[in-house]
Amino acid sequence: MSISLRNIGGNALSILTSDVMNRATSFVLYAMVARHLGTFEFGQLSLAFSLFYVFQVSAVAGLKILIVRDVAKDQSRTRLYFKNGCAIVAASSFASVVLLSLFIRLMHYSPATNLIVLLLSVGLFPYAIAAVCEGIFQAWERMRYIACVNVPANIAKIGGAYLLLSRNHGLYTVILILLTSFFAVAAIEVYLILRRFPAQRASISIPFCLATVRSAITFLAIDKLVALESSLNVILLSKLAGESEVGLYSAASQLLVPLALVYQSIAQSIFPVMCRKVEPGYQVLKRIAQQATELLLVLALPVVTGIYFLGNGALIVLYKKPAFLAAVPALRIMAWILIFQVFTSMLGQVLLACHREKVTLRIVIVVLLVTLVVGWPLISHFGLRGAAITLVLTRLIASILHYIPVSSLFSGFPLGKIAWKPVIAAGCMAAYLAVATNLEAVLRGVSATLIYGAALFALAMLASGGPRQFMNKFLLLGSE
Description:
Helix content is 85%, strand content 0%. By secondary structure, the chain is mainly alpha-helical.
């Protein structure tokens, strides 16, 4: 069967809204702290958030994906996974706080910085509880609850932080605002689980908890390695090139975040459907993966083309300082990862839905090792461009390593059939942008997008056999 565009679109929009708000809130909060308190406090908050990101993986203990997959298949076990999941993350959160306190002691940070980090680490427990709840929401395809809770919480967080900082309160009050937000989100989501989902008899079971932890270990390892791999490029760049290069690298990578959020939201909303469509032969799952991959390519290729030709203007609009134009060469290189991420995002979900998480773990290990082995010499010799090349190489390798097992699982995965229409349409767009250099950037971008859309529409009608056949196919997809 074809993907239900209405359900997938609504769920993807809910996840995207929540993720966008989370990212936007972090950006605004950083900016406010830097403006009101200065560089030292900004550095403290950045360090605290970075360590929180690393250790929240341990606090969640790999349970979220496991809950989505198992509850999506058998919703009668919702309350069982909820109660035991909360018990597991309570223990793992405590262990994470202990490990974090040992880590900062070994790093010999200042007492004030240690206190900031430890205060924020209190939020690991409510964050992990919220992850368990959101896994259940996702399994039931009720992602709207995630947005309904997180969006108001983020707005209140920004408002509270602004109010306190404008009245000359320090960083500690900002941390308290963040902790209040974490606990409020967890409490509301727990309430929704208890009141909006069927009441089922379940109790905390030590054997079930142990079995769940064993099943989630692979997901935990994957999340840990992904967290390390995602930050390794920045670590190497800061060590081998300096903080300014890290700033330019981050400036370029921020332009790629919006589309990456779209990938993530679509992949997460489709994952429960994939879990239910795993059947002998995988034909239905293969069809879903093909349709979703083609959709993501349709979104990715014009963005990559636009960034290559118009990225300098985007950097100026976003950061308003000509110094950031030094990131343009790296940005043009890094833009290609948006194509490779299509395959890692969607095919990665296929592997997880088919219980091939150990394959995913091996892929993450290989990518991490490649980043370390290739990144060190490239960044050492080429600085910012070396970091960008490293990123593209590792994402290319990751996409190939995802494609091979999925193609074997499906007895083939027709890339040519999936990609030819958006590739040709993007080629038309690129040709126009290369020629129309005298137009204003905005007009150039809008007209190029229209050309891409027109070319894609014409190719889709051609592939369908004509306008009538195309309309019939479109109406059929939209009605499911």
